[in-house]
Amino acid sequence: MLRNWGAAAAAVLVTAAGFVLSPPPPSPTGDAGPSTSAALPDAVAVDVKLRLERDGKLTVTEQVTVPVGRSVTRTVPLRQAVRDDLDRVFSVSDATVEGKGRVEVTEERLTVQLDAGTSTVRYKVDGVVADVDDKQEMRWQVSGGWSVDLDKITVSAVSPNPPKSITCLAGPPGSTGACDLSQIESRQVARAQEIGLKAGHRMDLAVGMEAGTVPANARFDETFTLARAFALTPVSGAALGGLTLLLLGGVALLWWARGRDARALATDIGPVDVLVADDAGRVGFASPDGVLPGQVGTVVDEHVDVVDVAATVVDLAVRNYVWIEEIPGSAPDWRVVRRNPADEHLRRYERAVYEALLPSSGEHARDHVLLSELRAAGLDLTAVREALYADVVDAHWFQRRPDAERSRWWWVGTGIGVAGVALTVVLALTTQVALLGLAVIVGGVALAVGSRWMPARTGRGSALIEQVRGLREYLRTATPEQIPPADREMVFSRSLPYAVVLGEADRWLEAFASLDAGADGTPGLYWYGAGTTDTDGTNAADDLRRFAGHFPAFLAALDGALAQAGHLRSLRS
Known about the structure:
By secondary structure, the protein is of the alpha+beta class. The protein contains 14 helices and 23 strands. Strand 20 and strand 21 form a beta hairpin. The longest helix is centred in the middle third of the chain and has 33 residues, at 234-266. The radius of gyration is 45 Å and the shape is rod-shaped. The two termini are 62 Å apart. This is Membrane protein (DUF2207). Residues 1-22 form the signal peptide. It comes from Streptoalloteichus tenebrarius (strain ATCC 17920 / DSM 40477 / JCM 4838 / CBS 697.72 / NBRC 16177 / NCIMB 11028 / NRRL B-12390 / A12253. 1 / ISP 5477).
């Protein structure tokens, strides 16, 4: 139980001053003494005698007359509201009953049950005396909580020093109506009387005395309110400040871990040198750091997407593992044909793509497949996704798998947020630092939202990001004239999968649309064939401009077949 003596003094100043200063009403009989009229024989009457002991405890004696054939109950709360966020707390001891009845005392209430006849209830109350400015006040609910209407209540109070003031209130709890009689007699006695007190109503008595008459023992408990629970106090303010510093430190750590990427993305990068010449003077394409098309998209956006797999399919064709054939008909379709078996030169994720398209064993083994068949049957690309995430870690571009890292931090943030909710509830009910719980919630939510930025690239991965930007610039600016005629088709084909994954396919196709596909001594593209000819007798594979018009439709059909699996994001970079 909280003992807030500062709050106690403030509460007494706020509530007791008005209570004590209320002027006593005139006696209903017009004289200085209490009424001597007798209670009705079938009514309940109560006579209360109070004695304030020198140790500050209040001895109470209640004589209660209950008519024949009736029984009554009185319940007195020992915790009474002073204001919305403060209770005054009393404690009762040595409770006894002489007569027909019983008394029960708990930490929260005093309960008296009496049968017909006259019974005497005795008990002691602690917590009735409070210091108020330059005087003391003794306060107790002398009657109230009765289960029946009372005919008359008379009260007399004796204190070690002569009382200086008396205030008596009667009526519903919280009301400010004065008692029928309240006065101070010459023999250090304060008296009060109320004629007719309804069931559930109360009668409160406050007696003012000289300062230091007895030891003050009033006790107060702060109660729950949202305003108090979420108040900005020195403790809650310090906690918020500490958590803010912690969050800023986390942001700084995240920036340190990813700052190399930020600098790479913010720097102006020119085209990288991806064209290399051999000893014979032939020019070829070499990707930066040996990165493959499927790896490029995963390193850049930290996700395995449909476009990554589509670019891998095109790359497998360019490297002579599969053949892509355009099928004539009213509805465009394409056939993917096995050309060479998967070998040790393929990465594990490339093998997974190859097996997904053209299984080499089992009941679904096949040497060719139409894209329309793939779309109808659906593909299982789970192995592709798992292998490609693992591959970028094996290549030392990431410290850990980016998907697992995002998921881990998302769950950590969610857990912190849930714990923050529970902490907020507990702190709100028990303390004034519930703002700390809200700060924990905010921190958890921020961590969950920020989980998408958690995967940390290695120094090699950050360098690759910079090189990929240069590769993109090469795809945007390169022209056939920069390449010897005999090597243009090969450079065009080897670069095309990278243009696909980096969103530069349309520009790349347009730049090389006038390319002579037979300049290298071979008829048309070596990895793409068309089963139809145009009206002028040219084959789509021979005419790069014709190919440029058909290839985007092939990519759209391939994307659709891959997206049908539902395992990957279908956003094209």
